[in-house]
Sequence to fold (557 residues):
Amino acid sequence: MADLTTVLGPLKLPNPVLVASGTFGYGEEYGTYIDLNQLGGLVVKGTTLHPRGGNRPPRIVETPAGLLNSVGLQNPGVDAVIREELPKLTGLKCPVIVNIAGSTVGEYAEVAARLNGQPSVAALEINISCPNVEEGGLAFGTDPVMVRDVVQAVREATTLPLICKLSPNVGDIVQIAEAAVEGGAQILSLINTVLGMSIDVQARRPVLANTFGGLSGPAIRPIALRMVWEVYAALRVPIIGMGGITSGQDALEFILAGAGAIAVGSANFVDPRISVRIIRELEAYIESQGLDGLSSLVGAAHP
Amino acid sequence: MLTTVRKNTMLADGIYRLILSAPQVAADAEPGQFVHVQTAPQMSRDPFLRRPLSIHECSPQEGTIALLYEVVGRGTHLLSHLQPGDEVDLLGPLGRGFTLVPGRRPVLVGGGMGLAPLLFLARRLREAGQRPAVLVGFRRGRDVVASEDFAALGCQVEIATEDGSVGFRGVVTTLLEKHLSSEDAVYACGPRPMLSALKDACQQAGAPLQVSLEERMGCGIGACLGCACPTPNGYVRVCTEGPVFWAEEVDLHG
Fold:
């Protein structure tokens, strides 16, 4: 039996296949399709200090090889998440990671502080890159000074392992990655969605009520792969790679580019069992190649 | 799950009925529920998302379900090319269906492809000993489909067309207003403006109204929060809390 145990800095995962924040709710909906204990990690929905109602519909539109979404971080707020959602996830074999967001540095730190010491939380993922909220979000993710400040404030508010999820909507991803590591991030997730839009030619208006949305799915995979490659080459930091992964082969591309683990995002919408299938495909690859595990493949495509 | 195409028939210009062998779905389905259909050929992942289609007819005895769809884009275009024996991957039955209201005359109102879930509903109402009136509206006479299927179930059927070439000239809402009484229970599916007009009419008449909503969907199982519908208490998910709602639960103008 292949050993898929994965170590990302301070975080140990049973296997390298996580499910990405915002595509998996709090896991509940997928529990009827798969055994959540089989996942490498479950990253729950973006959580803010106060409840957020989310954006007006339409919030979602299919585009070539993917989709745009502008959900707008709809969530019940950190206190309700702690009270109502996290208790349902205790006892799960895979680590639960909470994605956190805010409109000010102080809000990020406060959410982190409230989640500190929660028994079911294995790590925090800082969302500095949501394109769908008016304030904060993307703005935090595009300025290296702000990235460092936000990560540092969260670092001071928690003892949990810290992941920073980066936006692709920047000029120099390596510069942003460096700032996140400087601020205290031990692991980087990349990439979040790519800002895009779609227009209804009958109505002659943008399809999404929010005008712009975040593009995800196979359409962004080459962009994501290139960014994982660049950041790994420059920093050799633990990376969770994501962006349009739909198969074990896609996952391997990210691993060879430098990702120690990967996350499945919008593909969960298409096939709620896909994460487990990708784990099986990785196991089959290891066996067919006569490997002990995947660690020797991380970044192996680099010269 | 994988299902098998029994038949895929064009009923009118661009409108098809797809019959699938899907015993588990047929056994579990309630009227108003939907299935989430993969239209991409296997492995191609293009189009990326599934298509939510309400269950048009359901035969637990035969182990089949029927889906009614109009070709509007790439997904439905691919569906229209399916041949008997082809495999179709779907999730379902999903969502909350219609609640059968006892002791009131059922009036079923469908606008265009919105009539899709009403045939299965009409069958269940007949099995419960009720005799539904069915009012269906289409843009053109040549779009009229399924009216004979309702008639075959023993429903009283009235058709409205905007071009006046078949039945009543005008919209189906006007037809309902002629019929509606406080003794009725109304079940409707169609475009949002139609449902909104029905809501006003039913409120005035004091008749309970259930509406089946259409919305762009991502996952179809409640995780992505893409198919949000506004209510007085925040957003609900059309795929999970719906697609059928009591009219007063949702804001149909939003």
